[in-house]
# Entry
Amino acid sequence: MSTSPTWHEKLLGGFRRTSDRLVGNLAGLGGARLTDETLEEIEEALIASDLGPATAAHVRGRLAEGTFGRDMEELGIRLVVAEEVEKTLAKVATPLEVTAFPRPQVILVIGVNGSGKTTTIAKLAHLLMEQDYGVMLAAGDTFRAAAIGQLRTWAERVGVPIVTGKEGGDPAGIVFEAVRQATETGIDVLIVDTAGRLQNKRELMDELSKIRRVLGRLNPASPHDVVLVLDATTGQNALNQIEVFKDVAGVTGLVMTKLDGTARGGVLVAAAEKYGLPIHAIGIGEGMTDLRPFDASEVSRIIAGVERVK
# Structure
């Protein structure tokens, strides 16, 4: 009788291509004398694996300390990589906590179209429901009719109420009504979908500012979270999106999706290293339970190829 894979097994499979890429980039560098030239090659290999320049520099520094001029096997190098990656990820691996009082806790979810934003909202709702929180969705992305329909479909699958409006309608008005309903019905968490277009940053900023003003009138502490959804398959472009959205939208945390569809999962480390924003969860797979908070040590060892798929 077949059983569903564990989260650890999903991580192993999801990061397989990322791990293979890093191991491949380091191939042949182990077992050699750790000269300046070798260390330079190792640092370049780690940057090529999307781990970011700071983490690569830390690994190089660690390897140079005390081992310079000595032989070091490739596994030993990967163990140092795992330790340095863990230091970076441990600072940001922060599950989303529901602490708002009075309720609801309002979570604005932002991200470019195609990043997996809508499905991430559904998975996040499911994750919170597993923790016995009451969840409601608000279809604040009125720019696309498809976005409203998709979110409504997901709300039905997850089994949560949703507040919607017309295509082209006022997102702030929808958010206002959603907060009113959530407050009246005792909902713990309101997750708000927002427009994903970046072509006109001023327009997007104005829209988000209006939503913030409406929320502020209802509860000065809201929105409590502004979560940016990132598609790991875009690699370094994901970092560019953080750069833009953190200024435009006041991002408070990240969710990284589609890590199982790319060899560029190292961008998770680069994002943590460069911005230090909390990373609330990572997405591995298409299933409803395939979005989870992560353990920094576990993910670091898998990325570094210390724990491999058998």
